[in-house]
Amino acid sequence: MVTARELACTVLVQVMDEGAMSHIALREALDQATETFGMEGRDRRFATALVQGTLERLLLLDAKINGLSKTPVKKMKPWIRELLRMSTYQLLFLPEIPASAVCNEAVKLAQKRKFHGLKGFVNGILRNISRDPSLPDVDDSARYSQQEWLVHRWEESFGREQTEIMMQAFFERRPLAVRRNTSIVNADTLYASWERDGLTAEPVPYVPDAWYLKGFESIDRTEAFRKGWIQVQDVSSMLAAVVAAPEKGVSILDLCAAPGGKSMHLADLTGSGGSVLARDLTENKTRMIRENRERAGFTWMKVEEADARVLDEDLIDCMDVVMADLPCSGLGTMGHKPEIRYRITPEAIRELAALQREILAQAWRYVKPGGVLVYSTCTITPEENQENFYWIAENTPLIPESLDAFLPEALHSETTAKGYLQLLPGIHKGCDGFFISRFRKMER
Ligand SMILES: C[S@@+](CC[C@H](N)C(=O)[O-])C[C@H]1O[C@@H](n2cnc3c(N)ncnc32)[C@H](O)[C@@H]1O
Fold first, then answer.
1. How many domains does the chain have?
2. Annotated catalytic residue: which of 9, 103, 378, 431?
């Protein structure tokens, strides 16, 4: 049998040493633990909290451990390193757990994993921390657990105050946000099903027909999810299709569509009289879109594998709406994908911006004269966002269009009037960092 702590440590090693994404590795490990020996809700939640908390406080935890250990954290054996980080997280941030339990469980785990010679070392470090669980005196980079170059970059772009608000917001937990598939269920039927399943719902900011849901063990076991009545989606992502605002019965192309959140939203808005062509690079990716489509029964959605960098001549001038929600550095999502913060490099940002240009250089061609292109990313770097916005405006026949007719007044600004919205965590309520822009191809 695997305990929540052991499972968390294993996932942390997968994330830090093997390049796994924490939300995927965690979901797989939890599902396996539930299947093989019935790990239940409390333990699942505890393991989740340990993985997320340890990852998002990593640099601060390392500073605390390094202050006491002769061997720096980076030189430790992966399993012992993650065990110490995870246990230190509990000692510093989860005061409701008795320190003695944290230390004893860590020593037991070291033993179970056959690190007999390191039991004393683990015990010594953790007992020391338990005697003084104060936060170490560190700079902003360690305090907010962000790479130093990134903190400087943000301070230059957003100023110190806004940067701190944003870095703090990355620690905040939000309930799961879901959107109603309005074309297949009405709100009363949905509420009744939530009541039967014992869920509570609260409207999200900025988007109609969307709620934060609480009270479920696993969303995929609820009636509303199984029947495709709801789509799990972050509020900022919902705003992309809101800004695209397709009319009923139009044709839509989503170039980089997996796992399918925006395609599903667009399909719901245009309804069964319209069409959505949802594409992504590989079969692994398109499978996720197909699963979403089957659940909701959106037969007017077609799913294909295609490389968006390659021009598809058959689609030139064909689409009323083109959604270009492109691969990006994802920095806006580090609130729920904490490891992103340690992986990103300045070179990766440059490469991603170039990839986006390559795709955008084709994307605009598919828009019908009079049609609309929406370019969005889940990041907050000017190279990937504003610079690409101006690149489209200057290098294609498309013209930026104000977003204000589609957004609630609370989101209107100088830039939304120009044609783009940069959402920032902590500044825009309940949102990830996200960028949305809208263009129109002039009628000939
Ligand atoms: C930001 S995600 C899209 C999220 C999606 N729009 C949604 O709302 O669920 C970017 C996607 O681009 C895909 N992608 C990356 N390079 C691509 C390419 N050259 N052609 C098509 N898709 C690509 C990735 O597989 C990934 O699924």
1. 2
2. 378
